[in-house]
C-alpha cells in the first residue's frame, strides 16, 4: 500500500495543481476528506470516541496505552473539521471534559477524606502534570486550558476550605511545623488559579493573628502575676515578624496578598494593651532601654542594635497611634 501511495501521489499532485485548479472543481484532498467523512467518520466516530475516552481512563489509572495510536485517531477528529475545530470539540472534546470532570470529582471526594493536606497536594500536582503530558502527547493544544481548569476546579477550588482547614495538616499546621516545601507547593498550585490564593492568604492571616494574640495573652497573664514583660513581649513579636516575613518571601514569593495578610494580622494584636500599657508605650520603652544598654555596654555590636531598631520601625508601621509613640519616646 505504501508503494502504491508513493506511485500515485505525483499523479494526484499533478492533477490537483494543473487540471483541478483550472477546472474550478474542489481539490482531490477536499473530495477525499468529504468522502471519508460521509462514508466512514460519521458511522464510527461515536464508538471511536468512547474507546479513546476509555483508553485515557486506563492511562489515568496507571496502565500503559498506545499514545501514538491515540494521537493519530484524534488527528482524524481535527482533520474532519476541514479547517476548523468544530468536529474535534463537539464529537470528542465536550464528552472528554465531562468525563474528566466526573473522574476528578470522584478522586477529590476520596482523597480529601483519606489523605493529609500535603499528601493531597502531591496527588493534585501530579495529576495536573500528567494532564499536561497528555496534551503534549495526543490531545490538541486547544484542549489544555479547558482541561487544566477542569482539574483545578475539582481538585483545588471546590475543596479549598476543607483542604486548608484540615486538622493537624492544614495550612495552620504547615505554618506551625515549618513545612516550607508543602507551603511552597500550596502556593504553586493555587497561584495558577484566578483568585485561588485568596483563601490561602486568609488562612495565613488567621494563623498569624492567633499566634500574635497568644503572645499578648501570655504577657497579660504574666502582668496579672505582677511581672511586667514589655521587653520580652516586644522581642517575641519581633521574632514572630521575622518568622512569618520569611514565609512571605520564600514560600509565597513576595506576593502582595501575603504582605497584606501579614500587615492586617499584626495590626490586630500590635494595637492591644497589656496591663494598661499601649503598644506605642511599650515600643518607646523598649527603644529607650535598648539605647541605654548600648551606651553602658561598649562591647555591643552596632549592627545588631541597628537590626533591632529596623525591626522596631517595622512594628511601628502597624501601630495606629504613631504620635503616641513619639510622645512617650
UniProtKB/TrEMBL annotation:
Q: Which InterPro entries is this protein grouped with?
A: Cullin, Cullin_homology, Cullin_homology_sf, Cullin_N, Cullin_repeat-like_dom_sf
Q: Please name the SUPFAM superfamilies in this protein's record.
A: Cullin homology domain (SSF75632), Cullin repeat-like (SSF74788)
Cullin family profile domain sequence ranges: 278-329
Q: Which family does it belong to?
A: Belongs to the cullin family.
Cited PANTHER family: CULLIN
User: What name goes with this protein?
Assistant: Cullin family profile domain-containing protein
- Which source organism does the UniProt entry give? Brassica cretica (Mustard)
Amino acid at each position: 500500500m505504501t508503494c502504491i501511495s508513493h506511485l500515485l501521489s505525483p499523479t494526484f499532485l499533478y492533477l490537483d495543481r494543473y487540471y483541478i485548479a483550472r477546472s474550478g472543481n474542489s481539490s482531490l484532498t477536499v473530495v477525499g476528506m468529504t468522502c471519508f467523512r460521509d462514508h466512514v467518520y460519521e458511522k464510527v466516530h461515536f464508538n471511536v470516541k468512547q474507546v479513546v475516552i476509555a483508553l485515557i481512563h486506563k492511562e489515568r489509572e496507571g496502565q500503559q496505552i498506545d499514545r501514538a495510536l491515540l494521537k493519530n485517531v484524534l488527528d482524524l477528529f481535527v482533520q474532519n473539521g476541514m479547517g476548523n475545530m468544530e468536529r474535534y470539540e463537539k464529537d470528542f472534546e465536550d464528552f472528554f471534559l465531562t468525563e474528566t470532570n466526573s473522574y476528578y470529582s470522584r478522586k477529590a471526594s476520596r482523597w480529601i477524606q483519606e489523605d493529609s493536606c500535603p499528601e493531597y497536594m502531591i496527588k493534585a500536582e501530579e495529576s495536573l502534570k500528567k494532564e499536561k503530558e497528555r496534551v503534549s502527547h495526543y490531545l490538541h493544544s486547544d484542549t489544555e486550558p479547558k482541561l487544566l481548569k477542569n482539574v483545578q476546579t475539582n481538585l483545588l477550588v471546590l475543596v479549598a476550605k476543607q483542604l486548608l482547614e484540615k486538622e493537624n495538616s492544614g495550612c495552620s499546621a504547615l505554618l506551625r511545623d515549618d513545612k516550607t516545601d508543602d507551603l511552597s507547593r500550596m502556593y504553586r498550585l493555587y497561584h495558577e488559579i484566578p483568585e485561588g490564593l485568596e483563601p490561602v492568604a486568609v488562612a495565613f492571616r488567621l494563623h498569624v493573628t492567633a499566634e500574635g494574640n497568644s503572645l499578648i495573652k501570655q504577657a497579660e497573664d504574666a502582668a496579672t502575676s505582677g511581672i511586667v514583660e514589655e521587653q520580652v513581649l516586644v522581642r517575641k513579636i519581633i521574632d514572630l515578624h521575622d518568622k512569618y516575613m520569611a514565609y512571605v518571601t520564600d514560600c509565597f514569593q513576595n506576593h502582595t496578598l501575603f504582605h497584606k495578610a501579614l500587615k492586617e494580622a499584626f495590626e490586630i494584636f500590635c494595637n492591644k494593651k497589656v496591663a494598661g500599657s499601649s503598644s506605642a508605650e511599650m515600643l518607646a520603652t523598649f527603644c529607650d532601654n535598648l539605647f541605654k544598654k548600648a551606651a553602658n555596654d561598649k562591647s555591643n555590636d552596632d549592627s545588631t542594635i541597628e537590626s533591632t531598631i529596623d525591626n522596631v520601625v517595622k512594628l511601628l508601621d502597624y501601630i495606629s497611634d504613631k504620635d503616641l509613640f513619639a510622645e512617650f519616646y
